[in-house]
Amino acid sequence: MPTCPGLPFTGSRTVIPSENTEKSMETHNIEERGLAPLLNIAHLTIHYGMVTALDQVSLTVDRGEIVVVLGPNGAGKSTLMGAIAGVHKPSAGEISLDAMPIPYGVPERVLRMGVALIPEGRSIFGALTVEENLRLGGSRVSRSDVSDGIEKAFTRFPVLAERRNQSAGTLSGGEQQQLAIARALMSSPAVVLYDEPSLGLAPKIVTQIFELITELRDEGVTTVLVEQNVHLALEIADYAYVLASGHVISHGYASELASIDLARLYMGNEVAE
Amino acid sequence: MLEFMQQLINGFSLGSIYAVLALGLAMVYSTLGILNFAYGELITIVGYTMYFATQAGAPFLLAAGLGITFAAIASLLMQLALFRPLRGASFVTLLFASFALSQALQGVFRQAISPRARGIAVPEIFSTFVTIGDIRIGFLTIATLIIALTSMGILAVFMRYSRSGLQMRAAAIDLTTTRLMGVRANRVILGAFAISGILAGIAGVLWMARTTQVTPTSGFTPILIAFIAVVLGGLGSIPGAVIGGYIFGVLEVFLQAYLPIGLVPFQFAMALIAVSVLLYLRPEGLMGKRIEEKV
Amino acid sequence: MKISKAILALVCTIPLVLTACSSGDSTDTGATADGDSTAASGDPIIIGFAADLSSTYAYYDQPMLEGAQLAVDEINETGGVLGRPLDLKVVDIRNDPAEATKAVQEMIDEGAVYLIGSTGDVIAAEGAIACEAGVPISTGDGTAPTLVDDIGECAFQVLMNDTIQGATAAEYALAQGYKTAFLLGSPEYAYTANLPGYFSEVFTAGGGEIVGETSFTIGAGDFSAVVTKIANADPAPDVIFTPIFVPDTPVFMRQLRQAGVTLPVISTDGNLDPSLADAGADAIDGMVFTAPVCTSDGNEDIAAFYETYNARNGSDPSSAVAALGYDEINILAQTIETAGASDSASIMAGLANAQYDGITGRTEMNPETRRANKPAAMILMEGTNFTCLPAPAFPSLVPAP
Fold it and tell me: What is the ipTM score, two decimals?
């Protein structure tokens, strides 16, 4: 059991260190954050062989909010995102979207349920053209919707329109991130999972990407964001979870978490481990 | 010079069969990472289908069509009955499973049909030739070139412009990310096996038209050559497989034609040595990505 | 090294001692059987055939077996040999030398006194075991004359050999008025390597000229490179001679005709198989080849053989080679009867001088070479029909192997 030395949060309510039982956390969630979250993760445990990547992680995301998952490298953030998208197999616990359980092993079905993952490193098909990448994103929608989707994407991202027949590998990092987002939007998802969208991008571009994420949230896209850039993430997020060594060590409203020295929190945890 | 030109055409004609063959093997490898050694038996299936069809009085083109259809069905069955249940197994496990299937099928052909060759009747027109300038070329040599190039052209258009083709290309690059786009893995994989079977069917028809007979082990030479061409072109590279096929075809014909008589029995060994040297210089194959890049 | 050599020498002497003992035993048995010849049945006389029934040489070993089995059955139904039944033991060795070695050893251990060799190269392995045990082995349908000397004292060739058919083919070519020939061989096997030489020796001695030569790869499936060379031969030859054999022949012939080469082709006995017709009439019409026997000329004995075979098996034998298997067993039976003994040593002594009139013609064994002086037949393809050309005389010049 990890410890959280000194309870560094100054917030008056809602932040519950992980020593609290799962039960009380659920109670809290239900009381404080609405009765029916869109995305509900309960007691999720994932093993990679002998290694426990996630241990009894519970987390909820309400409709139309941005939830950010923070934590040091190796905390299990990407595993969590992969599990939501149906890529990783849970050993225990469950994930549900709108009360429907999310299956594992068939990411294509999870996408159809309305969850789109933008993986870490963007996973753009560099050998394919920009337009082909977008078409792939629309694999599960009708042909006419694909055309509409591409038009919308080109309106939102004019730079992609200019490069529609260029192979995606020739785009800059920021453009690739735009393409990854545009591609995810092709299936009109209810939930978009962003795994480290700022990775390797210049600060100016990162700001643009975060503005875009906010914009999309405002259009009604529920968002889960894994991010190393704590301050930017907390600026746009509604709620935040802190993950370390596969455990939720802390969570709370973003505004309240913003004033905490998270680096010390991670470190304290690691020392305790 | 005249003979050289003719040998070159021979080489390209043979090479185009090898290219189609290699393409079929590469389709499955690039999508799933499976080297399907039972692929050669698809050629044998084409041969027996054509043999029985022509025996029953079917015209050659109908027999060829049936051969291609049966090869495609057999390819799909291989995926459904062998590779799908073994999903997640290691490369070596799958390789040996396909070896086992190959041997089992050969045993079935031997027991159920005959260990001896069965002749396939081919139309008279196959024995004719055309003269271009001073060069005399067999009808079949040219027909082979045209059919192979047309088939590969159609496949290229399909892969380039159709939705399924795009999904297959994406799956070949990264299957997991493709699935995250909502693409059904099973459909893409079946599609790859179907195309692989159709290509084996086309190559099989061209091969059978040339050799006019089928034995239980007819698939051995084709799978060996397809494997060499795929490795030569770069494992996982679709254009590489085609180029590898053409290079090996031309190499085989030229070694046969220009080696001193005493060395001709070593023709195949020499072709393999040439391939080994190429692979030593370019371990990733002609069109393959550098290993470091792939990881 | 010294130690292992000593062990090797020791191991090698053991079989020799055992062989000496066992052959002594079987001589006794033979004498007893002879004295007791009125017995309806006795210990069977065991004949072994380690045959390739599922690989390349199934084309020849399978019909050899069919004919041999028929002869064995007939002999057993009419009182056997020396009053004893023949027992033909067969193992499919799939052209694998290791399996051949094992099978032949087992046959000898079970008491086989005579072996029919496989047509494939595995006969070398079979022969080594046979000679070591002092058991005679025939070359089966193998016609390479060098086989007998290569294998050793225990080997016999009871059918016509390649020197005879090469010479017969050359004399036929000269008789047709062909002046120039193109040779297509393959160094891979003795058969395909040496036959062009035998042909060439007799052809040039008779005034003919060899204007070109190339080699093919056995089992290549594609002969376009070879065919192009022949098509471009300058000067163009009058005839092509090649010891190519099925299943390659139909492929080669079709590709040759596809390239527009209409030259006559003379080949050899490896084409005595119905699958030659697979090439289709347009590809093989007019092709001529030498063979140990031609079965389609209405010869009464051959017709009776086919009739009997058909009555018993419900179908024709796989090929005319069956007639050779049939004759070989009958030559053996006559040899044993004449010697009055069924031990290996007596059979070897008898075979060396055997003379026999069989359904495939007269076999006269030459005791010096242990090969038969037996004329070859010539077969002409008329469309897809195998027709017999007038029986050629024994060639006036037979090259040395």
Answer: 0.81
